[in-house]
C-alpha cells in the first residue's frame, strides 16, 4: 500500500477504527489518516477474499501488485467503488439473504465534500444536499452535508437498504473524511424530513 502513501499497518488500523466509528454512529463525519479517503477505505476493506468492482487505475494496480485484486461485475462484487453516483444501479448490487445478510455489498462513493451539518459546504447547488439518517446508533435524527451525490442516488440507496436485514452498506468518502450509512439506517434528503424530527 506504500505506493498509495498508505502505511499497511498503522494507516489501515486507523482507517478501520474510523470505519467502525462511522458505522456505529451513522451520519457522523470521521477522519481517515491519509488522503484520498477512498484509497484508505478500499485498502482496508479489500483482501484476496473480497471481490472489487471499480476504483481508479492507481488503486487497482497497487492492489494487483499485492495479489489483493479479485475483480467482479458490479452486481456480484463484495466492494464497489463509485465515482459520484451509479445512475441508480445501486439497487442491483448484492443485498445478501435473510440467512446471510452480511453477503450484501459495500459501496464506497467518492464525493466532492462532506461536512457535519453545522459546517457549510460551497459546492454545486444541484448536488449539495443535507441528508438525514435515523435508526440504530442515531439519537432521533442526525443530519450531515454532502456535495457531489445527486438526490436521485440518495433515493436509490434508500431503496437498496429498504429490506433490512438484507441490503447494502455505504460509505461516502471525500478528501480525508468518511461517513458511514449501514443498511440498518433510514436515509433521506433532510428537506423531506419534518423540521421537528431533525435534531
How would you portray this structure in words?
It is a single chain. With 199 residues, this protein is α/β, with parallel strands linked by helices. It has helices at residues 10-24, 37-45, 57-65, 151-160; strands at 30-31, 52-53, 79-83, 106-110, 113-116, 128-135, 138-147, 169-174, 177-181, 186-189. The protein has a six-stranded mixed sheet with strand order 1-9-8-4-3-2. It has a four-stranded antiparallel sheet with strand order 5-7-6-10, with helices on one face. Strand 2 (52-53), helix 3 (57-65) and strand 3 form a beta-alpha-beta unit. The protein starts with 9 loop residues before the first helix and ends in a 10-residue tail after the last strand. The model is unreliable at 192-199 (pLDDT under 50).
Concise synopsis of the structure shown:
The chain is of the alpha/beta class and 199 residues long. It has helices at residues 10-24, 37-45, 57-65, 151-160; strands spanning 30-31, 52-53, 79-83, 106-110, 113-116, 128-135, 138-147, 169-174, 177-181, 186-189.
Characteristic terms for this protein:
199 residues, alpha/beta, Rossmann fold, six-stranded mixed sheet, four-stranded antiparallel sheet, 4 helices, globular, PhnH-like_sp, Alpha-D-ribose 1-methylphosphonate 5-triphosphate synthase subunit PhnH, Phosphonate_metab_PhnH
